[in-house]
Amino acid sequence: MATNSKIEWTEMTWNPVTGCTRISEGCRHCYAERMARRLKAMGNARYDEGFSLTLHPDLVDLPRRLRAPRVIFVNSMSDLFHDKVPTDFIRRVFDTMAACPQHTFQVLTKRSARLRALAPELPWPKQVWMGVSVEDQRVTGRIDDIRAIPAHIRFLSCEPLIGPLDDLPLDGISWVIVGGESGPGARPMSASWARSIRSQCRRAGVPFFFKQWGGVRKELRGRELDGRTYDEMPLRVERRAAAETRSRSLPVIAS
Asked: In whole angstroms, what is the distance from residue 92 CA to residue 122 CA?
């Protein structure tokens, strides 16, 4: 189950795990939970259990069969560091990523404490980017955890941004994504919150990616912040993107 993605900061998704449980306020209107219900109703066998956590061992080796370099978001429909994902399974996923230097893997978690505990047991090649979700001030402790792991690229996903983050510790952080919540019941994102994070990134020299304003119909609000689009990404992907002359252009920003 690897599919091309409409997520602006990646190219495709790879889901060796599906399903999750809520852990913080950023999960209240989870897009993956809504999508899982829809896929189950459509008869997709991977979602027979809906959004219950499910391992898909047959998908662990899938990236090894992809020859062309891709940017891959790992577990867009789950959290690899969920307590119910066995440690051995996590290691298998990381072993696959380590064996595929042609790809760039973007892993994102809200379970930063488990990530930090397991990090010494996992391989950390340069193509594995590790991030944590930071939706408001209550969960900024996740940043301390991500800064303690040996990933080459460490990033923050401030999405859905549901509160101000005015004093982010960005030392050791290579990339920041900001986005508003979307879908039914979406909570509004203040422009001042996004501008504050942009300013902090500028001062720290960290690439800033503005993904969306969000809302019930996010397409109506677009992706521009103060009249421009921010598609900045860490340097490694930028160089590859330029070499391949991909269809969308991304500015070169060093991390």
From this structure: 10
Q: Does domain 2-22+30-244 have CATH number 2.40.50?
A: no
CB half-sphere exposure, 122, CA atoms < 13 A? 28
pTM beyond 0.85: the answer is yes
3-state secondary structure of 239: helix
Long-range contacts of 176-180 (CB under 8 A, 24+ apart): 176/201, 176/206, 176/207, 176/208, 176/209, 177/9, 177/131, 177/209, 177/211, 178/208, 178/209, 178/210, 178/211, 179/210, 179/211, 179/212, 179/214, 180/212, 180/213, 180/214, 180/215, 180/218, 180/221
Report the distance separating Cα 153 and Cα 91, nearest Å.
19
Q: Which residues pair with 72 in a beta bridge?
A: 12, 105
Q: What contacts 114, CB < 8 A, 6 or more positions away?
A: 81, 83
How far is residue 163's CA from residue 169's CA, in Å, rounded to a whole number?
16
Give the 3-state secondary structure of residue 198: helix
Give the model confidence (pLDDT) of 86-127 as tens digits: 999 999 999 999 999 999 999 999 999 999 999 999 999 999
Q: Which amino acid is at 113?
A: A
Pairing of strands 17-18, 54-55: antiparallel
**Contact of 194 with 209, CB cutoff 8 Å:** no
Domain boundaries, the chain: 2-22+30-244
Question: Which residues touch 237 (CB under 8 Å, ≥6 apart)?
Answer: 71, 104, 250
